[in-house]
Each structure stands twice: as C-alpha cells, then as structure tokens.
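Why does residue order matter? Because the sequence determines the fold. Keep that principle in mind as you read this record.
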Amino acid sequence: MIERNHPVLSVGAQCRLLSISRSSFYYAPQGETEMNLALMELIDKQFLETPFYGVQQMTWHLRNESHAVNVKRVRRLMRLMRLMPIFQKPDTSRSAKGHKTYPYLLGGLRVDRPNQVWCADITYLPMRRGFLYLVAIMDRFTRKVLTWHISITLEADFCADALKEAIHRFGSPEIMNTDQGSQFTSFAWTDRLKRVGTRISMDGKGRCLDNIFIERLWRSLKYECVYLHAWETGSQAKAGVGRWNTFYNHQRPHAAHGGQPPAVVYFTSIETDQQVQAVA
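Structure:
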C-alpha cells in the first residue's frame, strides 16, 4: 500500500496514515544463520532415522555430537521445519484455531485400487543458504506422486494449488488423508475436497505413522536426491525435485508392487478397471 516514490506523500507520511511505524516498512527479514541451517539439516537427517525423537531427545543427540544447543533453539527449529515426533501430545503440526479437524478413516480399510485414497504431506528442503517447503500428493495404493509444489512459506495456498492440479489431472479420490496441520484444515483445502465429494481423513495427533507411505517418500527423496546436492536457488531445487520425481514415478522399482514403478502400476490398474467396467 506504500509507494516509495509517491509524488506528494513521503514514506513517513504514508506510514502515519496507515498507523504503522516507518521501521516496520523498512524491515527486511534476515533469515536463518549458517549455524542454524546446518543444525536444521542435522535435525532433519536424524529425524528420518528416529521419528520418535522429541525436542529434549533431539537436543541431547545434538549435544552428544558436540553441538552446543539448548532446548529453546531446537524447539524453534523443529517447529520451523514442521517436524512432528511420534508421541501423544505434540507441539507441532497443529491446526489453526477455529479450523475444523476430521476423524481418521483409514483404520482397517483395505486400499486396493488407485484413486481410492490419496495422502498429502509437507516436508522441509534444506538448501545451501536457506530452505524451502515441499508438498506432495500421493496415491496410496500405487505410491505414485500425483502432484507436488514448492513454496518459501507455509501458507495454505501452495497446498491448495497442488490439490487443484491433482484433481484436474487425475480426477478426485474417494478419501484424502493428511495430518492436522493448518494448511490441511484451511477452508481452501477442505472446501475443494467437499465440492468434489471426497471424504476427508486426518491422522491422530502425534501419529505421523498414520501417513507412513508419504513419510517413506520423504526419506527416499532426501537420501537419494536432496542430501546429495547443495542447491543455491529455488529454481535449482525445483528442477532437482522434478527430475527425481520423474525417476521415482516411472523408473524406480517399488517393492510393494513386485519391482514395478508406481506410474506403471497406477495406469495399468486404471486401464484394467475401465476394461472390467466396460464388460460389466
């Protein structure tokens, strides 16, 4: 709302009219220090190995590795990275105040066809001088990654955009499962699902294993791609994730399907179902 080169009003005058301080207008976020970025990568790697580590255990681990950190710093970084350890009362991945949460619908459910259940999650991507967030939407039966988007913030828009793209390209699922994070309890996300008739399922608090298949995706992505590179820019990260996703979907053998890549299983299953329906 403020114009730096306004012909009549100075920046100070515009700030006074808007009831904000001039220092707020000129403030530029400094980002994380190199030390914090290095700690975040260490935390991320360890969390993939021990997803049950809470703040205190992660702090002890880092201290045992000769890193001088306190609980407050580790708690802030884990929240920033959106890491949710497996225990009953987590401090992270909370839904926003006033947002509705939904029950977990997958308990005892046999998932045996594509587009029956989709799952979505967000992870942190370390870079040389910062970090990004990645959301992915996966078909639970075939493990195919349907869409993914990268963002510099945790605003709900990039998740909603990924969902819109997935529905446009692949139709709508019967059930969508996520955690209870504010991005997935937002109106933009839930309204889109309701309008296409999809049932909404959400993991129990502190139960990241309810969404275990996409957690395994993050582990593969990070060890096979992210940690092997030190990306400088968002465009490099996007290109790198895109190449790995293509490899994962179309070439990487998957044990759950007898060595077949997820995309082969997905499209073969879709074609088979269509043929069965045509005969019936």
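The chain has three domains: 1-30, 34-80, 117-276.
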